[in-house]
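Hi L., both proteins are below.
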Amino acid sequence: MRDNDWNDPAWRDAAHGWVRGRLDALGTPVTGEIEEVRVRPWSVTHRAPTADGTRWFKANITACRYEAGLAAELARIVPGTTLAPLAVDVGQGWLLTADAGPTLRDTLTVDDRITTWTAMLQAYAVLQRATVAHVDRLHALGVPDQRVSALPGLLAGLLADPDLRAAVNPAVPALADEFAGWCAELAADGVPAALQHDDLHDNNVFADLRFFDWGDASTGHPFGTLLVTLNVMHDALDPAERPAVIARLRDAYLEPWTDLADRATLRRSATLACRVTRVSRALSWRRALTGAAVPVDDGFRTAPAAWLDELLEPTTV
């Protein structure tokens, strides 16, 4: 069952009517046709021209609608570090933003990427620490609670789905006790739960180091953010330089947390967090595919099982 259909003319008319109304109220009316730019089963993005530049509309399916409210809340918690919305409809999951220019990926060169990635990781760690005091508020906005104490139960819930259980490696269910042990160790490391982007890479950060695209976000062990981030960086590096550079980037991210534990403990937690956050990634994909607004390709449909299978593999740190 779909909870939206991005191709439904009635849905599109309502969305475009909202965009035009909000931009009229802001004194920057639409000056041309609103165009669909990016379509995914879980979200859609439209571009609206105005005399003051491009404006972007994003809609999410029900399971990911919290992104709109989260984006607005982050603009209050950490002003200037995220893409602040011009308008949101929390109930619909609609988000309207100004154009913010190129992403880091668009501007990176081989010579400056390590320095830029380091700045990105440290800026994100500072953002995360600012969210620690607001975790309960984020839950009230609908941001999923995926703290490490909850992850063993969430893994069991995923494996209770007979279709998903049939698709995963048979060794994954047998890992449940060891997985619970990793989570217990993480829960005791002194690092508090925070906002966890769950898909942080250099194409979800603007060149001025403002962060965006929160549709996969949850609360959890903050170091789980390194899973996707370091995987992407690892794949962009030459094999000979990977070990040293990945360790350097990990340590740069951990620097803002060094008042909470010694470096050996933080590094151990980074490794464990990257491993258990594979369950968070599986949960993110399941949310994204529940009530999908357009047909789902097989490459997307198999993602939850693929991430659970990754539990059997070593991490990049």
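That was the first. Here is the second:
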Amino acid sequence: MTVSQDLSILSLILEASLVVQIVMGLLMAVSLTSWYWIFRKGLAIRGAREATGTFEQQFWSGSDLVQLFRETSLHRDNAGPLGRIFEAGFREFSKLHGQKGLEASDIINGSRRAMRATFQREIDDLEAHLAFLASVGSVSPYVGLFGTVWGIMNAFRGLSNVSAATLSHVAPGIAEALVATAIGLFAAIPAVVAYNRYIHEVDRLSIRCESFMEEFSNILQRQLR
């Protein structure tokens, strides 16, 4: 009963050396921060995906472009990445189309540049803080391993003051050291899984947006003929 109490997770953390406790505290803080961004980015990417699907249905349903542009401009914050790309492209198209002396290629290229700039901002916003998750996934196990190595070193150093070393002398020190590795893996695994999934989702949205920009440019070009 005594051994079980001494080797509980909480007691191992509280009785660990100062360096190991600092490592554990750092990993716990990083883990909480990564979970915050996992949930936040998950909601943002899901919202962008749903808004993109809604706008695609409206656009390809044969809606009037001018009316769709007005509605998108009024609800720009909820239009999603694709809606804002459309709004930027059609706004630039309308502005350039009203100017005299411009060729059709100049108008289309200007519209494409506006859409491309908005597209880049949208993708950058979706990818923001994903690099943090990647760093947590790659670095946390090594930070935990550092705490483990340090704890095991202290455990064996403590044996120098013991005449007859037994497993009961070294087990608590090794156990508290291994907790650091466990916390490191607890921080790293969800971050890696979330990063891989979110990058894949952002790539899919990026492809959809790029395809839309090409198709929309062709539609605008036909209107100039």
